[in-house]
Amino acid sequence: MKAIVVSRYGPPEGLKFVDLDKSIPKENEVCVRIHATSVTAGDAMLRRMKLPLRWIMGLFMGGLGKNKVLGHEFAGVVESVGDEVSQYQPGDQVFGSTGMKGGAYAEFICVSEDSMIAMMPANLTFEEAAAIPIGGNTALHILKTGSLQAEQNVLIYGASGSVGSYAVQLAKYFGANVTGVCSTRNLKWVKEIGADETIDYTQDDFTKNGKSYDVIFDAVGKISRSLCKNVLRENGAFLTVRSTTKETQENLLLLKDLIERGKIRPIIDRIYTFNQITDAHSYADTGHKKGNIAITVIPSQK
Ligand SMILES: NC(=O)c1ccc[n+]([C@@H]2O[C@H](COP(=O)([O-])OP(=O)(O)OC[C@H]3O[C@@H](n4cnc5c(N)ncnc54)[C@H](OP(=O)(O)O)[C@@H]3O)[C@@H](O)[C@H]2O)c1
User: Fold this and answer.
1) How far apart are the CA of 222 and the centre of ligand 1, in A?
2) Which one of 222, 232, 241, 276 is most buried, counting C-beta atoms within 10 A?
3) Distance from the CA of 158 to the center of ligand 1, in angstroms?
């Protein structure tokens, strides 16, 4: 099968196509023919990672050596299943995340049926579905740790990123009054996806406008709790993407349900083909994508 590996850590040009043996599903695994994957901020960061940090991260990721298959999100069709698999059958459309181990920049992937995988939301394309698991789960998991309540004032810093755009929509769904912080060009659509108010970070400083918040969620890892101390209410929560998150099937199923009910949706900035992976990573490296970048592995009609 065709796969994309990191032949050299650094610029996007280090990504190379290789031919690998297609793996066979173990007893509890499903083998998915991948139709779409994505470029997350994390994929781009791993590709750029230098030693010795790469060695340390590799300990958690089954190695980050030469010729590692990148890619952490996928959507596709189940091709075959192991003998003990009970929830899926060939032909099912599924989406999911590989967890820390990567491997989604490939034509096929085998994952446990109990891992971060679910039936695809009925109303989405493969590209849209592939852009949900990481940004959506991260936003949901972190908002849950903040015990968000209806009517609370929540500020999402970096509302136009992948995590940020899910956080705005989820906080709105949970009944919060949402303020999204983004740059001028993103103000309009961040309001359209649910922010009650927006603050343009290129013009205004949210720490100096006299307002205070019950929850501040830094969705791009650019601010600190100490910066927010004067605008965080007593017992207020500072949440950040820098914290450790956990991927759960329960969260994935909630995201699927909310999408099917029209409560949230993935924001797709650009879609690239598999062959354009270098361009896609170059764009992710700018740090200014709007929502998500999807990669078409197999062009489809859906
Ligand atoms: N803990 C975890 O499990 C986990 C999971 C996923 C992601 N992450 C981390 O979360 C971070 C965000 O990921 P992502 O995929 O959502 O990022 P992203 O999509 O790459 O974020 C890009 C967005 O950030 C905005 N932005 C850039 N600089 C900003 C600034 N100074 N102030 C406000 N907004 C700014 C950009 O808007 P403009 O173009 O307007 O500047 C752009 O829309 C990354 O560091 C990633 O590694 C952590």
Assistant:
1) 8
2) 241
3) 6
User: Smallest Cα–Cα separation from 162: which of 191, 185, 209, 130?
Assistant: 130
For residue 11, whether the previous peptide bond is cis, meaning omega lies within 30 degrees of 0, is no
For 269-282, write each residue's pLDDT tens digit: 999 999 999 999 99
Confidence band for 301, pLDDT divided at 50, 70 and 90? low
Same domain (yes/no): 38, 148: no
Is residue 261 in a domain? Answer: no
Q: How far does the centroid of ligand 1 lie from the alpha carbon of residue 30, in Å?
A: 32
The half-sphere exposure of 134 on its side-chain side, counting CA atoms within 13 A, is: 28
Mean pLDDT, residues 45-67: 85
What integer pLDDT is reported at residue 175 of this predicted model?
97
The amino acid at 3 = A
pLDDT over 70 percentage in the chain: 99
The answer to whether residue 86 sits within a structural domain is: yes
Q: Are residues 291 and 220 in the same domain?
A: no
Pocket test for ligand 1, best of 220, 227, 242 (most atoms within 8 A of CB): 220
31 shares its domain with 122: yes
Over residues 100-115, the mean pLDDT reads 96
Please tell me the residue having the least CA distance from ligand 1 atom 11: 220
Pairing mode, strands 232-240 and 213-218:
parallel
Final residue before a domain boundary, out of 240, 257, 286: 240
271: nearest Cα among 291, 247, 244: 291
**Chain length of the chain:** 302
Query: What is the pTM assigned to this prediction?
Result: 0.97
User: Could you tell me the CATH number of the domain that includes residue 158?
Assistant: 3.40.50.720
Q: Is the CB of 37 under 6 A from ligand 1?
A: no
Q: Of all residues in the chain, what percent carry a pLDDT higher than 90?
A: 89
Residue 41 is part of a domain; what is its CATH number? Answer: 3.90.180.10
**What domain range is 7 assigned to?**
2-132+266-296
Q: Do 72 and 139 reside in the same domain of the chain?
A: no
